[in-house]
């Protein structure tokens, strides 16, 4: 076995489940993306809840309808692409179009939206977008306002998302459900000549840089092809390491495997204590 090969195998050994080891015949790649256990492309190759789909025609990896871009085994996150919601003026109707807003539901899955590394990002010149979620503690709705007046176009600044043409906010920890909506009272019927659409999405912070033309054109949506990357954390089960270690289905059992509690809600991940 080449040293190169060994590097890819090591992390997988760390989280191997003795009782239900996946068959060695399992496909571990989809279009260049490594798919380490507990993830897999068939239920027999994955821990419950971690099976993914590879569309070989497109060369894309999916969790349900969401495209998966990266998997981090040691840090317990994945990157997914999620639709950008929009709310636009329609020249034919002479009114606002129905807002196009996307619901992302991760309840009863091992995934949670990461509060670290993501920002709810709203783009527009007259818009108030909400992020709604129904969590265990009841309903939560928060949002932010982005404005800019026609005469103020010059005050838009590349790289600065601070309320003028763009606003951002963090999300609470542990969310598994989210929906975007636009407040119809803040619409573009009076400013459609220079800003027809408003956009909102939860976006990986490091992947986003505000550009002036985002608030006055479709450049934002175009740049991301309608779908922006976001960080999603995953964890095994919903128990802490301490509790899970007593159970027969405990997963971090190989010698160099170390249990780490999930930082984002419940569950745990397995780390390589002897990894280089
Ligand atoms: C996991 O596998 C089951 C059975 O093949 C399938 O019904 C389910 O849709 C798969 N889940 C994902 C996210 O692909
Ligand atoms: C794969 O993607 C192609 C192109 O988008 C689509 O036509 C096809 O139905 C997909 N296959 C599966 C198994 O989802
Ligand atoms: C995601 O994977 C691609 C290659 O598939 C790599 O170039 C990129 O650096 C990875 N991104 C992160 C944030 O790890
Ligand atoms: C505007 O509204 C009309 C009538 O509902 C619809 O057919 C058309 O697709 C809309 N235009 C856009 C750009 O969404
Ligand atoms: C949360 O929203 C749902 C659906 O809109 C509603 O039925 C429920 O009463 C709300 N719960 C709380 C605690 O506000
Ligand atoms: C936009 O979508 C949200 C969620 O579906 C809905 O509550 C809201 O009323 C919609 N607003 C308009 C103007 O259609
Ligand atoms: C759009 O905003 C205007 C005020 O600027 C308001 O009169 C109108 O009712 C709003 N349109 C919709 C669809 O809510
Ligand atoms: C938008 O532009 C058209 C033609 O340039 C003009 O007739 C119309 O009055 C303008 N509408 C607004 C709301 O400024
Ligand atoms: C944003 O993410 C996409 C998809 O992984 C990547 O192709 C692109 O280079 C990233 N852009 C930045 C600025 O990080
Ligand atoms: C918007 O600005 C970005 C960065 O300055 C540029 O790359 C892009 O081509 C512009 N898009 C449009 C439609 O002007
Ligand atoms: C392990 O088993 C316990 C019951 O003994 C169950 O509550 C828990 O959800 C299981 N964990 C996983 C990751 O399947
Ligand atoms: C933990 O997971 C088990 C099995 O998936 C479920 O029965 C239980 O209600 C969950 N407990 C909590 C606190 O979410």
Residue-averaged pLDDT, rounded?
A: 86
What is the first-to-last residue Cα distance? 18 Å
Alpha-beta content class: mainly beta
Count structural domains. 2
Strands side by side in the biggest sheet: 3-4-5-6-17-10
Helix share bin: under 10%
**Helical segment tally?**
3
Strand content: 35-45%
Low-confidence stretches: 1-12
Order of helices and strands: HEEEEEEEEEEEEEEEEHEHEE
* Radius of gyration, CA atoms, in whole angstroms: 21 Å
Give every kind of bound small molecule, once each: 2-acetamido-2-deoxy-beta-D-glucopyranose
Largest sheet: number of strands, sense, barrel closure: 6 strands, antiparallel
InterPro entries: WAK_GUB
Protein name: Wall-associated receptor kinase galacturonan-binding domain-containing protein
Main location: membrane
Keywords: Signal
Describe this structure in words.
By secondary structure, this protein is mostly beta strands. It has 2 domains: 29-76 and 247-272, no CATH class; 83-233, no CATH class. The protein is 8% helix and 37% strand. It contains 3 helices and 19 strands. It has helices at 3-14, 219-223, 241-244, and strands at 29-30, 33-34, 53-55, 60-63, 66-72, 77-83, 85-90, 95-96, 103-105, 111-113, 118-123, 126-135, 138-147, 166-169, 177-182, 197-204, 227-234, 257-261, 268-272. The strands form 5 sheets. It has a 6-stranded antiparallel beta sheet with strand order 3-4-5-6-17-10, with no helix packed on it. Strand 18 (257-261) and strand 19 (268-272) form a beta hairpin. Residues 1-12 have low confidence and may be disordered. Bound molecules: 2-acetamido-2-deoxy-beta-D-glucopyranose (12 copies). One 2-acetamido-2-deoxy-beta-D-glucopyranose (NAG) binds next to loops. One 2-acetamido-2-deoxy-beta-D-glucopyranose is lined by residues 134, 138-139.
């Amino acid at each position: 076995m080449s040293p190169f090969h060994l590097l890819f195998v090591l992390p997988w050994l760390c989280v191997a489940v003795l009782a239900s080891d996946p068959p060695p015949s399992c496909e571990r790649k989809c279009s260049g993306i490594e798919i380490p256990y507990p993830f897999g492309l068939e239920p027999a190759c994955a821990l419950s809840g971690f099976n993914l789909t590879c569309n070989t025609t497109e060369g894309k990896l999916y969790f349900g309808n969401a495209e998966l871009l990266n998997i981090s085994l040691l840090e317990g996150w994945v990157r997914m692409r999620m639709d950008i919601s929009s709310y636009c003026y329609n020249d034919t109707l002479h009114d606002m179009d129905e807002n196009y807003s996307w619901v992302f539901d991760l309840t009863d899955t091992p995934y949670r939206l990461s509060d670290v590394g993501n920002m709810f990002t709203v783009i527009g010149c007259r818009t108030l977008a909400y992020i709604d979620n129904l969590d265990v503690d009841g309903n939560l709705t928060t949002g932010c306002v982005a404005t800019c007046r026609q005469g103020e176009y010059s005050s838009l600044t590349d790289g600065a998302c601070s309320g003028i043409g763009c606003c951002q906010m963090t999300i609470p920890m542990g969310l598994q459900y989210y929906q975007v909506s636009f407040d119809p009272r803040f619409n573009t019927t009076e400013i459609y000549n220079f800003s027809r659409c408003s956009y909102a999405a939860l976006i990986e912070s490091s992947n986003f840089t505000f550009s002036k033309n985002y608030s006055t054109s479709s450049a934002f949506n175009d740049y991301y092809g309608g779908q922006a990357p976001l960080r999603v954390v995953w964890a095994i089960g919903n128990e802490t390491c301490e509790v899970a270690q007593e159970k027969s289905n405990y997963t971090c059992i190989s010698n160099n495997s170390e249990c780490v509690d999930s930082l984002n809600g419940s569950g745990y991940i397995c780390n390589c204590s002897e990894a280089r």
